[in-house]
## 1
Amino acid sequence: MLGAIIGDIVGSRFEFNNHRRKDFDLFAEGCFATDDSIMTLAVAKAIIEARKIHPSDGRHGEAEFLDTLRNLTVKYMQEIGRRYPNCGFGGMFYNWVFSDAPQPYHSFGNGAAMRVSPAGFAAHSKQNALDIARAVTEVTHDHAEGIKGAQATAVAIYLARRGALKEEIRDHITNEYYPLDFTIDQIRGAYRFNETCQETVPQAIECFLEATSFEDAIRTAVSLGGDSDTIAAITGAIAEAYYGVPDEIGNKALSYLDGGLRAIYDEWSALYAEGRERFKVLTKYIERITESDSYGKWIFDQKNDGTSEHPTQWPHVSYDRLVRAFATELYQFHESHPEYSLDRYSEILKKNGLEWGARPMREANAESLGEPCILALMMGAVRAERFCDGALLGFFEDGSILKWLKRLKDLDIRPN
Ligand SMILES: [Mg+2]
């Protein structure tokens, strides 16, 4: 949820003054928490209160929970919404907030997706994410495209939270929701302000899929133009689930919330301790690596006979998608975290009494090493492949990568 709030606040000053580039100050004069943040917090409040009435055991009582949730979503969106009449509501929604008999109004506006992120964070299964998304959406946006926009957003968050790879999230969205047959660079020039789910949600998801870090996701979303606070809110929520939120950005955004809104956020984050892991983008591989029994295959050239006309190709490893994704994300982590100086991995290893070589690296006692050295070990393993075919496969197969990632996960625990 914090990712949505960040995206909303950062995007707020660009909604009617688009900035189609990635270079800008995240927080500056003119930034404020708009309806996207406020309605997201109202949805979060409804989920918190509905769960107090119907605690989840993951199996029973979900229908009753969803009924209560629907009623409480109306209650809190109205109650909280009425305190902020000028936060940016559209006309129809404004009337709904102040109505004595609020009814759904068949909307497919992107408001459905901008406020739905708590559904993805609170869900205990994919189906549960879809059910919660529908319940909090259909009280206003009961058009099929409104429900779809909310569910696509919630499911992307749920999958990202549970450690899905980007390619898997892309496949799921493409198969079930929207064809993502464009890149942000391709559409940026012609993209215009549009308040429908159909012209906001797929674009926001693509911004996340193309990003290399949480911050880059927010910048990419703003650079697209259009309804900037809402696009960045949707992108930001998914990016939070996938990358976690850097402390500095998270704390700055929270400083824009008044006491009442902040209290909802605090209650929520105590229940759904979300998005505060620094190394999640890497440690999410722990489960996948543990489950996988193959990381790649050696390819031996059997077509050529070694003559000068048909020189044999050197044996090399064709890596599985999991390993390729890991290596790409380690490089992206390096680029977005220059403070670790991972290009100097071999120096870092030396400082810790280690050599850059298969044996000393494998035998290093991970339990005694700190973050910089663990990250340097992983970078050293990925870089070794450039110089020695199959080197990285060795580090996967002998359990080194898994051991280092587990150590990194232990080091990630910190006070909130
Ligand atoms: Mg807004």
## 2
Amino acid sequence: MCDLLVLHYGDHISARTLPPVDELVLTILSQNTTDTNARRAFEALKARYSSWDDVAGAPPSDVADAIRSSGAFRVKAKRIQTALREIRRRMGSIDLSSLAEMSLEEAKQFLTSLHGVGPKTAAIVLLFSFHRPVLPVDTHVYRVTRRLGLIDSRVSREKAHIILEGMIPPECIFSLNHNLVRHGRFVCRARSPKCDECFLFEICDYALVGDAGSIRQG
Ligand code: SF4
């Protein structure tokens, strides 16, 4: 499946190489909104404050105002400020570079112990900022891998991180993340997947058996 996706879409390495704290904040901002809105909010935040310490210490309403374009801005401001303060308390400064020295499991545990940080956000930080082989299971990855039959349709998204990571060779993960998202956006869409023009048809449970009711969204 990895090979078929690479043949079709290419062997992509993400161009995103933000420092880890920036990646963490951007990923929190991108929760339940578009990449464009999240990026706009991130840039507004960087323009308003000169450091992450300044963001951590600012009045919550000011931070919320700066990130208004990301939606749910009060909740996200609280998540960002709490996470930044927690990083400072536990690391001595707002710096996540020491995650590079931790085992993958320790790094994941550290990140997911922060307020508002789940397995997907942790995986994005580890994949993009540290090039560690962790697969972020976003809505597209979750839907496509369930339809293909790689994971059971009843498995939660949190559990899907563990199952998929155990079955995918680490060297595939970079391109797989990019290619599954692309496939989910343009071919294996939530509504009306284009199965009749899909190059994965022959190996797809959904196409061969059909399970349209249970794996529509995700
Ligand atoms: S065959 Fe259909 S359901 Fe299966 S991966 Fe392709 S588009 Fe998705």
